[in-house]
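Thread: "does anyone have the structure for this chain?"

Original post by V.I.:
We have the sequence but no experimental structure in hand. Need at least a predicted one for the grant figures.
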Amino acid sequence: MTWASWTTAGVYAGKGGVRIEEGGTVRGDLTVHTTWTGDHADVTVQYSGASEWFTLIGSPVSCGSEQESRALHQAVVGAVRAGDDLPVPHSTDTPLRASTVSRSQGRRPRDLP
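Reply from O.Q.:
Generated one for you, C-alpha cells below.
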C-alpha cells in the first residue's frame, strides 16, 4: 500500500477556529497532520503538545496522488492560520475551505458563542 504523511506544528488558528467531527470548534496553537493512503487523505489537528487528535469536518478527502495530498496539507495549514471555520474541500480542485482550531481551557473542543 502506498502512503505518505505530513505534520506541521505550531500553526496558530485564526479567529474562526477549526470545526471538528467530534463536535465543536478548536482554536489556538495546533499541529496539523495529513495522511495519504493512495486514494484519499485524512486531515487531523491536535493542540500542540497534546496527545489527542481531532478529525477536521470534511475529512477524508479524495486525493489521487501524493503531490495532491501534499498540496492539500499546505492549503489546510493556510486555512487554519486564516481561521475560515469552513470544512476541508472534497477535491484539491476546489478552493480550500478548511476549519480552524481554538484552544479552550482543559484542552477540549468548544462551540463558538
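V.I.: this helps a lot. The first strand starts at residue 4 and ends at 12.
O.Q.: and The two ends are 43 Å apart (CA to CA).
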